[in-house]
Structure to design on (136 residues):
């Protein structure tokens, strides 16, 4: 007895059953917003393929061809690539961009530069430290 998903009856007597494995390369390119490359790598590692969706529904069944098995295995991945930084779009909206929350992805921004919020947080911390040092 052979394990198969093909339905056969006495009308198929004399026919041969064939099985063929075909290997495909699947490429998944994902993006994530993260504070740095390490956080991005962690987030990418926590995502990927939902293996419950790798099933016969991704195959085409016609002319009597039935899917016996579908599988996906990890093979390799590229490096995490810096694409740009979310910044206020002052080029388009001027100083109102900060007030209105108008942002864009700046592909020329340095990956390690502080954001406007981070700069503000640093300024606030410096001012608090200064006020504490003078007894305010």
């Amino acid at each position: 007895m052979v394990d198969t998903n093909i339905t056969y009856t006495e009308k198929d007597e004399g026919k041969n059953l064939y099985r063929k494995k075909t290997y495909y390369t699947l490429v998944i390119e994902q993006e994530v917003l993260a504070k740095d490359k390490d956080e991005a790598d962690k987030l990418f590692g926590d995502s990927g393929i939902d293996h419950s969706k790798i099933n016969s529904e991704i195959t085409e069944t016609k002319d009597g061809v039935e899917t016996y098995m579908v599988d996906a295995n990890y093979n390799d991945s590229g490096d995490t690539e810096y694409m740009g930084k979310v910044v206020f779009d002052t080029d388009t909206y001027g100083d109102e961009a900060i007030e209105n929350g108008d942002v864009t992805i700046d592909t020329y921004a340095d990956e390690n530069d502080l954001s406007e919020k981070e700069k503000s947080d640093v300024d606030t911390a410096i001012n608090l430290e200064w006020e504490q040092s003078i007894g305010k």
Strands lie at 85-88, 103-106. The mean pLDDT is 87. The first helix runs from residue 37 to 45.
